[in-house]
Amino acid sequence: MNRPLVGPEDVAAAAELVAGFARRTPVLDSRAVSALAGGPVLLKCENLQRSGSYKVRGAYVRLARLSEAERSRGVVAASAGNHAQGVALAAGRLGVRATVFMPDGAALPKVAATQEYGAHVELGGASVDEALRRAQEHADRTGAVLVHPFDHPDVVAGQGTVGLEILEQVPDVRTIVVPVGGGGLAAGIVAALGEDHPDVEVVGVQAAAAAAYPPSLEAGRPLTVPLRSTMADGIAVGRPGDVPFGLLHGRHVPVRTVSEEELSRALLLLLERSKTVVEPAGAAGVASVLAGHPVATPAVVVLSGGNIDPLLLLRVVRHGLASAGRYLQLRVRLDDRPGHLAAMVGEIATAGGNITHVGHVRTGVDLAIDEVEVGVQVETRGPLHSAEVVQALLAAGYRVSDA
Fold first, then answer.
1. What is the C-alpha to C-alpha distance for residues 97 and 259, in angstroms, rounded to an integer?
2. Of these residues, 30, 53, 127, 304, which one is catalytic?
3. How far apart are CA 101 and CA 236, in angstroms?
4. How many domains does the chain have?
5. The CATH number of the domain where 59 resides is what?
6. C-beta atoms surrounding 122 within 10 Å
7. Which of 53, 55, 110, 288 is catalytic?
8. For tag attachment on the chain, is the N or C end more exposed, with fewer CB atoms within 10 Å?
9. Which UniProt key words apply to this protein (predicted)?
10. Digits of tens for pLDDT over the chain (403 positions)?
11. Per the domain annotation, does 2 fall within a domain?
């Protein structure tokens, strides 16, 4: 039987390298997620890692193992943000010059943090895959060493130190749920488990809009899939890495998908119930549990990153409230007469709804000359309360439709 490209001994060696650089992140109980799973679920908080994600682990191992000649040429990387920050931070610690290519849509806080860690940032392209092509061109042109975000044994071994810590912190773990983009983190955890832990299942989770692994695993080889827009930019990768794919395919790791609504609801759940800030990609594992995907417990869900743009957080929280039935958007038609708007607002208030925004439309091909359409945004206590608010308006004779 051929030895895997990365195994437990490689992860153990990587752990010695990152000791003193990467943090040993905590594992926290979550009653809310445990209730959803029907058994104990713990959260591995890589959102509290240096630079805000697990990526510093693999980046540091890769850079620390470069020769002096390679370090002198500098390194180049491509990332939507977390790998960029990990490479920049590791390069700064090791005294290596770093250039990072990031997509045009990369979150400004991630760009700023990468620059503050000392890397030179080049923006361009619509995706991480395009940024990676530009980074490879830069490496070919300048001789800089490409630090791939997931497709290298040293990177995979470094990410695997997350799995090593989980085994030490939760010895009776039965399932480890991991967000998956290119697959480096999940593959590293598989490598850490090796053959000594056949009873521990690793489960990957991808955003449905960027899910290259399910068809690739079915085909038995990495496939490239078109990417759709997703809030989980940290795991929006169009093709699995060859090294990670080999490890995940070899262990028969299932990879599930979650919707944008499930991602936003998971992020909201973590904020409200666990007092934990994560980015959408980092919430993918919790989204899977929230979606009802079964896990054997005790389970550990990896919160892979916490680098979220505050503006995106605002939108995602609002989206999560709407998905959870706590943020109601309605269009209400009224007679355009004094007092009718106030009466409608009063009905919502009496029903316990909190209006956050009101907008008027007085002209439209489907509006009568004496009608006005009012768009209202209402905070509610949940789906049942939302239905009560709508029913109160209908009972009062208002014509109501979804916004």
1. 39
2. 304
3. 16
4. 3
5. 3.40.50.1100
6. 16
7. 55
8. N
9. Lyase, Pyridoxal phosphate
10. 466 789 999 999 999 999 999 999 999 999 999 999 999 999 999 999 999 999 999 999 999 999 999 999 999 999 988 999 999 999 999 999 999 999 988 888 889 999 999 999 999 888 888 898 999 999 999 999 999 999 999 999 999 999 999 999 999 999 999 999 999 999 999 999 999 999 999 999 999 999 999 999 999 999 999 999 999 988 999 999 999 999 999 999 999 999 999 999 999 999 999 999 999 999 999 999 999 999 999 999 999 999 998 888 888 777 777 777 788 889 998 888 889 889 999 999 999 999 998 987 776 667 777 788 889 999 999 889 999 999 999 999 988 987 5
11. no
**Torsion sign, CA atoms 113, 119, 120, 121:** negative
Looking at 94, 124, 151, the residue that finishes a domain is 151
Same domain? For 201 and 177 the reply is yes
53 part of the active site: no
CA-to-CA distance for 168 and 166, rounded, in angstroms? 5
Q: Is 52 exposed, middle or buried (0-12, 13-18, 19+ CB in 10 A)?
A: buried
Whether 260 and 164 map to the same domain: the answer is yes
pTM of the full structure: 0.86
For residues 326 and 381, the answer to whether their CB atoms sit within 8 Å is yes
Residues 6+ apart with CB under 8 A from 186: 178, 180, 202, 204, 244, 248, 253
Last residue of a domain, one of 294, 321, 348: 321
Q: Does the annotation mark 55 as catalytic?
A: yes
Which range marks the domain in which residue 282 is found?
A: 8-53+154-321
Q: Are residues 185 and 284 in the same domain?
A: yes
In a domain, 3, yes or no: no
